[in-house]
Amino acid sequence: MLTYLDFEKPIAALDQRIIELRETATAGDIDIEPEVAKIEAKAEKLLKETYSKLTPWQKTQVARHPERPHFKHYVAGIADDFMPLAGDRAFADDPAIIGGLARIEGRRVLLIGHEKGDDTATRLKHNFGMAKPEGYRKAIRLMQLADRFGLPVISLVDTSGAFPGVQAEERGQAEAIARSTEQCLALGVPMIAAVVGEGGSGGAVAIAAANRVLMFEHAVYSVISPEGCASILWRTADKAADAAEAMRVTAGDLRALGVVDRVVDEPLGGAHRAPEEAIGNLKAAILEELDGLAKLDRAQLLEQRRAKFLAIG
């Protein structure tokens, strides 16, 4: 069963009506198809209308949808022969960030990204996609490996932010995030980052300082969560919707500001309604961007990345 968001309740009511009609039809010889077709058309029209005018806060809810594809789904749909590489060679392996070698349509790449998990057990295992210092140090190690062997780096961003716990701070969270961001900027190979869900704070930027930054249509990208911003400015998280509006967290706003380079279309109703289509759209965009970056040499890649981030703001 699809999980409906609060603003999707009218759509949910229509979908439920269709289910009830179909259940009624199985009990007799009633032809309910004309009525079902009418309700389906009404539901699709309402879905289009709803998703054509989402507020920034509603887009935030879509970006956090529990059934939205996660890193493991993108790996399965985009890459061949994915070989995960674990550990930072210093402290531990952090399952909030997964990375490894892969092929995309025959091209050798390094894939890296946040994994949130999709049920209670896996969310706890992956710490809801909130990485600790060893996660970012693993990312650094893998990016250095990619640089050494001339492999393009593809990163998929989906995190509410880096883990803020005491243990992470004790192990140098801020330094690890800064070093990871620095490593992105120092890469002599093409790097493409895609914000596929939430892009939260330094936890996102640490693996997103790329030559090309892509963003899904209903993803969000911000320096702090709307709830965190509201708690600071208004002293209450109840103002999260106002904060999301003020921070300009949506793909359209960030494309206009030059923070992201390309907005990737999602299926009607969000990536969670048609994951395979969403993954296919992202794969096509990544391949196109790889073709463009393949024309640049090491010096040009470094200069392009430097100029891009210096121009922001």
UniProtKB/TrEMBL annotation:
<feature type="domain" description="CoA carboxyltransferase C-terminal">
    <location>
        <begin position="38"/>
        <end position="292"/>
    </location>
</feature>
<dbReference type="InterPro" id="IPR029045">
    <property type="entry name" value="ClpP/crotonase-like_dom_sf"/>
</dbReference>
<comment type="pathway">
    <text>Lipid metabolism; malonyl-CoA biosynthesis; malonyl-CoA from acetyl-CoA: step 1/1.</text>
</comment>
<comment type="similarity">
    <text>Belongs to the AccA family.</text>
</comment>
<keyword id="KW-0067">ATP-binding</keyword>
<keyword id="KW-0443">Lipid metabolism</keyword>
<keyword id="KW-0963">Cytoplasm</keyword>
<protein>
    <recommendedName>
        <fullName>Acetyl-coenzyme A carboxylase carboxyl transferase subunit alpha</fullName>
        <ecNumber>2.1.3.15</ecNumber>
    </recommendedName>
</protein>
<keyword id="KW-0808">Transferase</keyword>
<keyword id="KW-0547">Nucleotide-binding</keyword>
<dbReference type="GO" id="GO:0003989">
    <property type="term" value="F:acetyl-CoA carboxylase activity"/>
</dbReference>
<dbReference type="Pfam" id="PF03255">
    <property type="entry name" value="ACCA"/>
</dbReference>
<dbReference type="InterPro" id="IPR001095">
    <property type="entry name" value="Acetyl_CoA_COase_a_su"/>
</dbReference>
<keyword id="KW-0444">Lipid biosynthesis</keyword>
<keyword id="KW-0275">Fatty acid biosynthesis</keyword>
<comment type="subunit">
    <text>Acetyl-CoA carboxylase is a heterohexamer composed of biotin carboxyl carrier protein (AccB), biotin carboxylase (AccC) and two subunits each of ACCase subunit alpha (AccA) and ACCase subunit beta (AccD).</text>
</comment>
<comment type="function">
    <text>Component of the acetyl coenzyme A carboxylase (ACC) complex. First, biotin carboxylase catalyzes the carboxylation of biotin on its carrier protein (BCCP) and then the CO(2) group is transferred by the carboxyltransferase to acetyl-CoA to form malonyl-CoA.</text>
</comment>
<dbReference type="InterPro" id="IPR011763">
    <property type="entry name" value="COA_CT_C"/>
</dbReference>
<keyword id="KW-0436">Ligase</keyword>
<keyword id="KW-0276">Fatty acid metabolism</keyword>
